[in-house]
Amino acid sequence: MKDETSPNPYQAQAKILLRDFDKTVARVRNVFIDRFGAEAASEMISTAREEYERLIPQMPYIGGKQPLTQFIVSTAWFLAMYRALQKHGYTVADAGALVYRVSEIYINSYPAVVRQMLGHTTFSKRNLKGLRRRAVESHHSPYSDDYIFNFVEGDGVNFDFGVDYLRCASCQFLKAQGAPELAAWLCPIDILYSDSFGWGLRRTKTLAEGCDRCDFRFKKGGSTNVAVPAYWKV
Description:
Blueprint: H1 9-12, H2 14-36, H3 38-55, H4 68-86, H5 92-108, H6 112-122, H7 125-138, E1 148-153, E2 161-167, H8 169-176, H9 183-186, H10 189-197, E3 202-203, E4 214-218, E5 225-226
Parallel strand pairs: 3-5
Antiparallel strand pairs: 1-2, 2-4
Helix pairs in contact: 2-3, 2-5, 3-4, 4-5, 4-8, 5-10
């Protein structure tokens, strides 16, 4: 069982996390400039970095597992951007549109061959074996804010495998930070990953929208079909 009084492990990695944030922002800086102009963009990026630095010790530790830990880190990035926009009078819809575009540029910055390889790995026997194991372990996690999910065996026709998330650490984190409204604006980013990695993702509901689960279904090379909130536009 994790000692809740011990220092947050993220704090010890703060320099590395900030360096990664800076590298990521450097890739997508033009998105900010295109939307807000060079001067405002620089100010927003600086504010977002300060917000992210403050968030690092508050990020929920879930054991260092990947890729789930990276989901937490990315959520903190986007929350920092959201708070920076809020300080300049922008809404959650504005933030949603920004982080979607930022994610699009970030994903496409990787060579096509790398994205193809990552997509192939998703459906590998090794990955699926590990995913089955982690699904069982998630129901006994010692971390109170961890993801809880079930592995769903494919039906051989409509999908190759599925994952039902019953608790989302990103949603928990945003709620604890007083920004639960941002969660539903982050979920559509999965469309980008599906299209880029060939996931053939189908999803009809999410925890972020108040549903009982996020029902991910993956079909290698299939078409992406992800329901998004009616108010969501980029």
